[in-house]
Each structure stands twice: as structure tokens, then as C-alpha cells.
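Justification of computing resources. Each target in the renewal requires a structure prediction run like the one illustrated here; the chain below, 253 residues long, is used simply to show the kind of job we budget for.
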Amino acid sequence: MQDRFTGRTALVTGAGTGLGRAIALAFAAEGARVVVAGRTAARLEETVALIEAAGGTAAAVTADVTDSDSLRELVAKTTDRFGTLDVAVNNAGILRGTGPAADIAPEDWDAVLRTNVTGVWLAMSHQIAHMRAHGGGTIVNVSSNLGAHQRIPGAAAYITSKAAVSALTRAAALDHIADGVRINAVSPGASAGPMSLLPGETEGGRAERVRTQNPLGRIAEAAEVAAAVLYLASPAAGSVVGADLVIDSGSSA
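Resulting C-alpha cells:
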């Protein structure tokens, strides 16, 4: 175990399940005080319990990334509880409106763009406001290999939103590195978790499917994606600005 984040506070949105939970656990394992944020309090408390059972320190804060006031309060609660906000990981996102682009329901299109793009922008705006007033910090946005790096049929809303996150990350990185805020992104492909299972598919069935689909022959583990996030947030990546690190078993190579 390392202690790259001892004495630092990390905020992770969408931390109630899956990749967000794995990222929160990884920060805590390396000494960070972690605020886990999301819309479902019970799931957040489960993440906190896992962190505390492993000897870490964490707090749960319910928040809605589509609501600016909620995000302002999230940053305030983070700093009230732990004194600082050093690292933010904007992981919250949704997948809706699958099917041909022309057939996407307007409400699904709006929901995906509002959560996946506007939610990241709103979160960064409040995170950056605090960080640049308090000596800087690092932000990692979770995008996707679907978007700027790869396209598939039937996912136009999600693809559009994640391409926008990749572009937004690079633009914000240029705008705010002079403020002492270093911003990057990770773009995972399918990773071990419920979202990568097709309807009715078992984990064994998924493993067999991706064995021939992915050049690596398997999907990424959530811990592997989390490790990349921690690298980008760490001092070892001090000169990495505006990167978009693809972690997808070679699918978009």
C-alpha cells in the first residue's frame, strides 16, 4: 500500500456503486479522506462502511449533479467536514435513450446530456472555484471510450455526451492550469460491473463474449480504472494536463 494521498481530501461523485465506489475505496486505501457523493443515501453509506471497515476515513453526502445549488453545498460540506478539497473525481453518469439516433425520446436525450455533460461542467465550476482560492487541486473526469475514441450503433446520446466530456476536460484544463488546478480524464471501456452485462447475461457469458471482442481478451477490472484515476490525481502526474487516458482492453486502439 502507498500513502500518496495521506492528509488530502478526495471527492468522488457517483460513488454509491460500481466504478465510483472502486475509485473511492482506492483513494481511501492510500490515505485520503474521502467524500462519496450521489443521489442514493443507502448506497453511499454502504461505500462508507466498506471504507471504514478497511481502516479508512469517509463521509457520505447526497447530491444531484444536475443541480448547481446541490453541488455548491456538496463542496461546502466537504470542506466543512475535512477542511480541504484537494482532489475531485466527476464520475456520475447515466445511460438512457438507446436505439437509432432519430428515435431517441427528447426526454432521454435531455437527461443524458444534462447529467453527463452539464453535470460535469457544473461540478467542475464549484470545485475549481474552491481550489483556485485555496492553493489549487486536481480533477479527473470520467468519460468513456465511446465518444471521442469509438462509436457503436444505438448509443448516440451517450456517445455524444462522453465526447463532450472529453472535449470539456481538455478545454477546462487549458483554462485553469494557471489557477493551479490540473484537470484530466479517463475514458474506460466496459469494466467488471453490472453496466457491462447485456440483458440476461451472466458474468461467465460476458467473459466468453469479450474473449473474442477485445484485443486483450477481457474487460478491465474496476480497480485497474481506479489505479489510472489515482495516477492522474497524484504528484507523479504533475506535468499531465488535459490528458484523456483510454482504458478499454484495446477496443478502440
